[in-house]
Amino acid sequence: MQTARRVGVEAEAFLISGRELSIEVRDGKVETLKQAEEQGLGVRIISHQRSGFAYTSDLSPAVVKATVADAVNMSRFSSPYECNNLPYGDYVYKPVALYDKGIDNASLEEKMELAREVERQARALDKKITIIEQAAYEEGSYSTTVMNTQDLYAFKQGNLCSISIALVAEEDSDAQNGFSAMIRRRFDQLSAPSTGREAAEKAVQQLGAAPIPSGNMPCIFDPYVTTRFLSIIASMADADAVQKGRSLLAGQIGNQIASSQCTIIDDSLLLDGIGSTPFDGEGVPGKRNLIAEKGVLKDYLYDHYTASRAGRLSTGNARRPSFRTLPAVGVSNLILQAGGNKPHDLIASIERGLYVTEVMGMHTVNPVSGQFSVGAAGLLIRNGSLDQPVRGVTIAGNILDLFRKIDALGDDLRFFGSRGAPSIRIENLSVGGR
């Protein structure tokens, strides 16, 4: 900061250090054990509304000074942008519990055993589980500091842990994959039985899967699939995409964009949330942001630059996964609030439809038009019960139409990483099969 002040520019330092542990098990034996540490500094310079950025993993004083000089030099070749500045540092941060000592206190053997237990639980579910591709335990800890020449200073420490498994079920000439993962803020919240069994159930459930005839039919998305579509809505609420005319939600504030049963929030302060943080990648305080309430679009998500362009304050949504990158608009804990219906009641209400448990090709969804056509797998619903497994079909439509056609939400809110959603029932959807 002193170096930047001497040359008369605004500057921001983003410093992060982290440690990772990864354990992979196969057939009860530890196959891979990796430990890694990393630290680095990203320097952003703003001079006459021109930005420059440079980073380094060498934190010696001479290299840090050279990195600042590199960022200053780069700013001379960039284009000026109106409202390009850094946030001021008069913030008060709410406390957020991000560090679990239980992760540190658990022994290496306990962590290995957790990965082994995931594998054992999967194999015990069904003899059709023939291949365990990988059972793993992973953890990471980090400390992050953000400071700038506008007197901003923010510091946090946190850690995470996870277990996962990928496997194959076989019967006759058919083979199906299954996967499950659980990521938590606390070590004692990891459950090897539920993770192993879920992956096995998914694979066995899909044995013998085949396409069904094409048609429009009611569909139920399980919570995982719901989070995939929810993430598309969040990308459309990105203020940067809105301001560049790359979002279907541009100009839609106050309009009905989803069913009146849908309330969508982004909450940086959620207890034990994977995306929880007291401040974002620019040091702006995290908070609870209401994106849509009862289907009505309430707000977009902003970082400091997009907020300055809009003449308002940042919503604390600058995300920065590495010291090697500049901040960009993103979500923290993205949530579609649950409804009051039991999942089995949603299924029982349908005479013939599709229960979707997997979608493929979500990267092809067009955020400007909202059109999508993606691969899907799941189970046929017949007379209110789950029936034959389905694979090799597509579901297609418009993302906003899909959310407007949600006529019931389950009470089974579940998080997958930092995205949380319940099961949803969609009035009708185009299903392409045989």
Given the C-alpha coordinates, what overall shape results? Answer: globular
Give the tally of β-strands. 20
Q: H/E series, N to C?
A: HEEEHHHEEEHEHHEEEHEEEHEEEHEEEE
Give me the side-by-side strand order of the main sheet. Answer: 3-2-1-4-5-6
Measured between the Cα atoms of the first and last residue, the distance is: 64 Å
Q: Give the count of helical stretches.
A: 10
Global mean pLDDT = 96
State the helical fraction.
10-25%
Q: For the report, how would you describe the main beta sheet?
A: 6 strands, antiparallel
Decide which structural class fits the backbone: alpha+beta
Determine the strand fraction and express it as a percent band: 35-45%
Radius of gyration: 24 Å
**Low-pLDDT stretches:** none
